[in-house]
Amino acid sequence: MQETSIHSSPPYLEHRFATQFGETVQFDHPLAASGMGARVSGIDLCSPLRSAQVDLLLDTLSHARLLTIAGQDLERFSLTAFERFANHWGAPVAHPSNFLRGGKPAQQDSESDGVVKFLPYADRRVAVADTVLPGQVTCLPHESPAVLVATNLLGQDDRKEFRLKDGGTWHTDIEYEPLPIYVSMFLAHHVPVARDTPNGQWVKPPVDAGPAPYFPGSDDELMTLRKRLPLNGETAFADTAAAFAALPLEEQAKLEAVQVRRRLNAEDEGWLAPLVRMDPRSDVKSLHSPLWASRPGVRPPVEVDGMTPAESRDFLEGLEKYVLQREFRYDHVHTPGDVTIWNNYMSLHTSPPIKIGIKHPDDARLLYRLSCKGAPSLVLPRDDDPAWVTKHIPGGYRSPESIVGAAS
Ligand SMILES: [Fe+2]
Q1: What's the CATH number for 2-397?
Q2: In a 3-state reduction of DSSP, which class is residue 12?
Q3: Ligand 1 center from residue 11 Cα (angstroms)
Q4: C-alpha 53 – ligand 1 centre gap (Å)
Q5: Please, how many CA atoms are within 13 Å of residue 78, restricted to the half-sphere of its CB?
Q6: Centroid of ligand 1 to alpha carbon of 349 (angstroms)
Q7: Could you tell me the distance, in angstroms and rounded to a whole number, from the CA of residue 12 to the centre of ligand 1?
Q8: 233 partner at 20 to 30 Å CA-CA among 149, 241, 255, 272?
Q9: Domain boundary assignment for the chain
Q10: What is the DSSP letter of 32?
Q11: Is the dihedral of CA 299, 305, 309, 311 positive or negative?
């Protein structure tokens, strides 16, 4: 029954963890009232995983929507090991902040054509992060274009438009391409421990500065929900599987028929994508990116097939308001050593308000992110069709043999 799988992961998963990883593994679920989230501890991701172990982790995410594999040894767990692990979930995607397209920054510019040039670490914007608290908080060595460093070790001028200090816009990762991102994952290295604001939290509640970074014109209730973000550096999530399951069957059926037109650029014809997806492992249905304009100024708003632009906005902002209700929200607390994976088809997320211009390690927030597209793979290296990689992965990136080993 879908009802039980939405609110709590199936009990047999716990037995499978004991079988596959040993009796000392701890499995906690759910992490949120909606049923979202599972946490496993006692798994060392420095060691390669067996197929049956990967299969279990994939099954767990397909039910829980978000999975934390806690307690990695940060002295040993390298970004190479992290990227190798990510390859099981899909093909790692080069992040737009790590390459130029047609000689221009790939994220800010809406053009989607042009030769992709991967930037060496020293030429990336994030390289300046290592000069903020030298010897205290620095990035792990890496050159992979798939690794995104999410940190507040950057000044406001160094940050991308949609990663503002007052929190980002609600979104799913790379929903604007024909093949969206399936999972994203964080490896947490540093999290802020300072609680020195008058409200006893890491940051003060942001001052209401109007609709930015959203477009103006949304109703007040929606704006309040959008901006109700955690204040201790947690990543904010909304559970679009639980939100879908809570709807009357008649409403679910209507939404399952909805297609949205997505475009890379406003003048493109774009393509139709389903609003409701079904997870192929768990059969759990969820809303995928039920948002009108999650990247204002970067990607055009979406349109619902058969609706005018104004009707599309009304309809999708109504859904966003529904999904951002407290019962579907979950603020995920990061702990150093945690690998946290989320399914972008089954959730929304956004970055929290952060302190910038920090001077003390207690204020440092340093996470590494990898995102993956396509089908999971129980064994490595992956066996992706080269034509598929060229079509869906910027620059045709593939994790090299030094990360995933050689094909046998
Ligand atoms: Fe994101």
Answers
A1: 3.60.130.10
A2: helix
A3: 30
A4: 27
A5: 11
A6: 6
A7: 31
A8: 241
A9: 2-397
A10: S
A11: negative
